[in-house]
Design brief:
The chain is about 30% helix and about 30% strand. The protein has about 220 residues and is of the alpha/beta class. The strands form 2 sheets. Strands 3-2-1-4-5-9-8 form a 7-stranded mixed beta sheet. The structure holds S-adenosylmethionine.
Length: about 220
Amino acid sequence: MMSIHNDQFSTNQDPQYKLWNSAYAGDEYYYGSEPGPLARRAVRYHHPNYPQGGTALDVGCGEGQDLAFLAECGYTATGIEFTAHGVIKTRRFLAERSLQAEVVTADIRTYSFNQQFDLVLVVNTIQFLGDAASACLDRVIHAVATGGVIGLSIFAREADQPSMQSSVFFMTLPELMERFPPDHWQMLEASQLWQWSPRTVHKTFGKPQAFVTLIAQRIA
Ligand SMILES: C[S@@+](CC[C@H](N)C(=O)[O-])C[C@H]1O[C@@H](n2cnc3c(N)ncnc32)[C@H](O)[C@@H]1O
């Protein structure tokens, strides 16, 4: 496998860019090569109604394991990712599986979602957008077409914690659900999950990371 040289992409000084670009710099896939459970469940809710596929967007696609899954399921899939290493690894991941998807190098904070999609994934990404997170969340939600499904996860906020902690954005489940009014959205799943992973354990000194997770369908 071709290796990626770390010093090639070191000019962007944004802390989140540096963090994720360096996380993806190695040959291995940081989050593995299997699609995540949220992607699988969102497709399972959406796909039966769209046997011919449809369009799908993965916002903050990382190294592409969910994007490749969307392409494999027959969607005309687009991924957005701002790290150079993430974009390269995503394109490699797709090519290794002979899958086609558009991979857009862009910063979600300034990206214009000028199209709506039948399926939108935004997994473990919005919280890293800092001050822009709340407005970006609204723009991502707006990018779901009528009849379309969104699968979303974001760091969970405990009621007594501030929504912004060290430039990371947190939400409670009720705060997230307010963005999905019942006259426009059918809630399919909404939950708070505490996720353990070897990386999470390492980063948070043994504590699981709490996420609020939601899958919903736009009905109007
Ligand atoms: C925790 S990772 C999750 C990646 C992927 N969704 C997954 O589940 O494997 C967060 C992703 O968001 C990307 N990201 C963070 N801020 C971004 C921004 N402003 N524009 C584009 N991508 C961004 C990071 O580069 C990283 O790939």
